[in-house]
């Protein structure tokens, strides 16, 4: 889901704590493994990812969360 600017939000229902950290690291590693190529130049790509999760009660939708 596009959240704003250069920010993206991933909602992972049922994914808590350590599992969410593992998924975030998988995304980061995959992105960093794909350098950006343009006009004969190769540029490294990086990102920073934050992880948060909420226990019960579960909000009705991602916007509420």
Which tags fit this structure?
25% helix; alpha+beta; 1 helix; two-stranded antiparallel ribbon; 65 residues; elongated
Description:
It is built from one helix and four strands. The protein has one helix spanning 17-32; strands spanning 2-4, 7-8, 36-38, 41-43. A hairpin with a 2-residue loop joins strand 1 and strand 2 (7-8). It starts with a strand and ends in a 22-residue tail after the last strand.
| First-residue to last-residue Cα separation | 13 Å
Q: Give the overall shape.
A: elongated
Figure out the total of helices: 1
The biggest beta sheet, please?
2 strands, antiparallel
Q: Helical proportion?
A: 10-25%
Radius of gyration: 15 Å
Strand order of the largest sheet: 1-2
Order of helices and strands: EEHEE
Briefly note the structural class of the backbone. Answer: alpha+beta
Low-confidence stretches: none
Mean pLDDT: 83
Instruction: Indicate the proportion of strand residues.
Output: 15-25%
How many β-strand runs? 4
């Amino acid at each position: 889901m596009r959240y704003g600017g250069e920010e993206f939000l991933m909602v992972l229902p049922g994914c808590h704590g350590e599992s969410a950290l593992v998924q975030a690291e998988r995304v980061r590693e995959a992105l960093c493994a794909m350098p950006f190529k343009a006009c004969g130049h190769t540029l490294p790509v990086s990102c920073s990812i934050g992880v948060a999760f909420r226990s019960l009660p579960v909000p009705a939708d991602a916007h509420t969360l």
